[in-house]
Structure of Ig-like domain-containing protein:
Amino acid sequence: MKTLLILVGLLLEIHLYFTESHAKHQQESSSKNIVESLNALEGKGDDVLEGPISEVVAQSGGKAVLPCKITDPGAGTITWLRRKDRQLLTLGTNRHSVDTRFAVRHTNTDWALQIQMVTLGDEGIYECQVTSHPIQRSFTRLKITEAYSIIPGAPDLHVKQGSSLRLECQLMAATELPQYVFWYRQGRMINYDAEPGVKVELTKSGSILMVNKTKPTHGGNYTCKASNAKPAYVMVHVIEEEEKPAAMHGGDRRNLSPAILASNFLVSLLAAVSWRIPSFTSLYPT
């Protein structure tokens, strides 16, 4: 009988132990729902994605905004993480990462992730997660481009002296408007020079430099430098018009004066009739 009672007591203690452990586990799970939801994704590679992937393109040094649309604002806590290194970036409206470039731009239904001064290392897939039941996830692939400038006609452009000159600086692969576009001639900025006949205009895709009547001083190396793109260069050669000397006109009679023409005519006439005039020796033979 004593043995039976001891066995019953041991069974009760074991039951109570497992019951308390299960209750404790449930409590920790409910209080750490965010951690559990993030840990549930451990071991999955970037190629295992559960849902469509949107795409955002940003240029190096610029700003990237990754959208996260939520249909039910009260569904749960919204988190952003970077898939390639499983780094938790934001938790609600708070930044979790030590990188201060990350922030959440929150509206009623959008919890967009904003990244300032993006670099090529920021490329990859980002995940927006709602800790609801079931967990909601959306994915965004961020691509980074390197903006650069081009000048049509480069590297060498020849213009006639006195003709007009038009240089256009076009920004390529740019996702943002530049804060400025500066023009340089031989290393000297000319945007704000009060030079007659020279004009600079800012366009949606870059800038245009115009010269009404080119002079030899307008020749040289021109540089177009935008605030958010690699610069472009062109060498402008101004061809000077030189007057030909008189010897190079090939005896053009239209360039001779009337006196010279008359003199030439008399010389030719005397030469033509000189053979008709008898010599003195033939008139008075010795």
Q: What stands out?
A: The CA atoms of residues 279 and 285 lie 10 Å apart.
